[in-house]
Write a structure and sequence with these properties.
Elements (H helix, E strand, L loop, with lengths): L1 E6 L7 H7 L5 H6 L25 H13 L4 E6 L11 H8 L7 E5 L4 E2 L25 E3 L6 H16 L5 E2 L2 E6 L8 H14 L6 E5 L11 E3 L4 H6 L4 E2 L6 E4 H10 L6 E2 L1 E3 L5 H4 L4 E4 L3 H17 L4 E5 L2 E2 L4 E2 L9 H12 L4 H9 L8 H27 L4 H7 L4 E5 L3 H11 L4 E6 L11 E3 L10 E4 L5 H10 L5 E3 H6 L1
Parallel strand pairs: 1-2, 1-15, 2-3, 3-7, 7-8, 8-9, 9-12, 11-14, 13-15, 18-19, 18-21, 19-20, 21-22
Antiparallel strand pairs: 4-5, 6-7, 10-11, 16-17
Helix pairs in contact: 5-6, 8-10, 10-11, 10-12
């Protein structure tokens, strides 16, 4: 069983951080200035021997690699940032590692595909590095780095950047394929098309393909993903109840035992990977608005991580993920500190030595479950997120209309004159009504309700033979991957999600 720890490359200066958060800003700035919020609150966290390292120093990576080898950590999953039009940030540690072939640190990437923005921006699902260090900003929308995906030219540029890493002998493979994680798969409206194209490029460049794991994706069906990751502690927080809020702040506290109980209680279908958590406390970044997991100890972590390895083995996995190697600003780190030394690291070899004795317990538990259901909390959270996403799409759409942005003009500029709309719900109807006022011809609708829909154009069932059009626009959000595959199998080549039409 391999243990892969998430790895943050935010421990070196870059010009963007100097501009946005203050000169000299790295993760260490927030860590050093963290404050206690209540008596037993473990802050500030101090690295052992005050080792506030710089990831651009080779000696730092050699030291990290030696610790990983000493404590049987099989590699790191390094966060990778790739924004609109190929804009990058925090890429130097990975690029240095590629050059430093004598640093024996197995690695893979997790694409952290979120827009970076100010905390006060109205953007949803943004990454806010440190709202306690925000500088005055002249941008009206608060966006610092915009996440956008483009088309084949941009996909190829991204893949060719990754290719030298994929071919490095230290890059972690699954079934001979480079392992690549994507953090927010639900945010990528072109995910099936992009992954299909990447697989083609992988074969073209002599790889066996790529092995893609998505997190926060609900299901990998039809999206081109090989597997899904229960990304923690986000998944657990969605299923737990907070203990309390401090009267002087809005900080939320969570019990470490409850967190792990939620992680270990999750049942799943095939092709699901699990992730453990060392601890959590993001108050260095968010101050009194943060979340704190209390009562984490090396002894508890050792016990729970052993259980998680056993459960992973019972599900047939040979990898278990761990959050994190060095997320000091969120209290998730294995690296030694002044309070516990290397005690959390010592839990890894202990778990590896003892997890096999517990596998049968999880195999028996799994065999008793004939049909595996999501918990009520998971279902409600997923439905809430769906509704919120629908709402924000409609808000953005209406805002674009007010500004004179025309979807018809976008379609015409792409050479599309005759279209079909898949799905005639709220979004599909809105699209039809907008295009009906233009010279774009909506030739027909595709919907399972068939003749029960009252429209002015022909309605086809998805499994019927479909007349030729320039493009099929899919207005169904969360099943787009499956619909894309079905339409491709019917020989339809031009397929476009409504989200992609709106945002790209």
């Amino acid at each position: 069983m391999k243990v892969l720890a998430m790895y943050l490359p935010q421990f070196h200066r870059v010009k963007e951080n100097d501009k946005w958060w203050g000169v000299g800003f790295t993760e260490w700035v927030a860590v050093k200035k963290a404050k206690k919020i209540f008596e037993e609150h473990y802050q500030p966290r101090i690295p052992l021997n005050h080792n506030y390292y710089n990831l651009l120093d080779k000696e730092t990576m050699l030291w990290q690699a030696s610790l990983m080898e000493k404590y049987n950590i099989d590699g790191v999953c390094m966060y990778h940032y790739w924004f609109k039009e190929g804009r990058q940030i925090l890429e130097k540690p990975a690029e240095n590692l590629l050059k430093w072939t004598d640093v024996h640190m197995p690695f893979c990437f997790c694409w952290a595909n979120q827009t970076w923005a100010r905390s006060w921006s109205m953007l949803q699902n943004k990454n806010v590095w440190s709202n306690t260090y925000e500088q005055e900003d002249t941008t009206l929308d608060g966006i610092l780095l915009e996440q956008s995906y483009g088309y084949e030219l941009q996909w190829k540029q991204h893949f060719e950047y990754l290719l030298p890493f994929f071919k490095d002998e230290r890059y972690i493979k699954v079934d001979g394929k480079p392992l690549f994680l994507i953090y927010k798969t639900t945010e990528i409206s072109c995910l099936p098309e992009m992954l299909d194209y990447w697989q083609q490029l992988a074969y073209l460049y002599g790889l066996k393909g790529i092995y893609v794991i998505g997190s926060s994706c609900y299901t990998n069906q039809g999206k081109g993903l090989n597997a899904e990751l229960y990304y923690e502690p986000a998944e657990a927080f969605g299923c737990m109840s907070e203990l309390c809020r401090d009267n002087r702040t809005v900080v939320s506290t969570w019990e470490y035992d409850d967190l792990w109980e939620s992680i270990l209680s999750k049942e799943s279908l095939e092709n699901i990977y699990f992730e453990g958590v060392v601890g959590y406390d993001d108050t260095p970044r968010r101050g009194g608005e943060g979340d704190i997991v209390i009562h984490a100890t090396p002894e508890k972590f050792s016990h729970y991580f052993t259980e998680l390895m056993a459960k992973s083995a019972a599900y047939g996995n040979d990898i278990v993920f761990l959050n994190a190697w060095n997320e000091w600003g969120e209290g998730m780190y294995l690296e030694p500190d002044e309070k516990y030394g290397e005690k959390f690291l010592e839990a890894i070899p202990y778990a590896k030595k003892n997890y096999q004795n517990k596998i049968m317990k999880y195999k028996n538990s799994r065999n008793r479950i004939d049909i595996q259901y999501e918990s009520t909390e998971q279902i409600l959270r997923r439905e809430l997120e769906k509704n919120v996403r629908y709402l924000h799409i409609m808000e953005d759409w209406m805002a674009r209309r007010v500004k004179g942005v025309s979807l018809a003009c976008r379609l015409k500029s792409a050479g599309y004159k005759e279209i079909a709309i898949y799905g005639y719900g709220v979004l599909g109807r809105s699209l039809y009504e907008e295009l009906a006022l233009s010279d774009i011809l909506v030739k027909y609708i595709i919907d399972y309700k068939g003749e029960n829909l009252h429209t002015e154009v022909k309605v086809y069932l998805p499994y019927e033979s479909l007349p030729a059009v320039d493009v099929v626009i899919v207005s169904v959000l969360f099943e787009y991957g499956t619909i894309y595959r079905v339409l491709k199998d019917k020989g339809i080549s031009n397929i476009l999600s409504l989200e992609r039409l709106l945002y790209e």
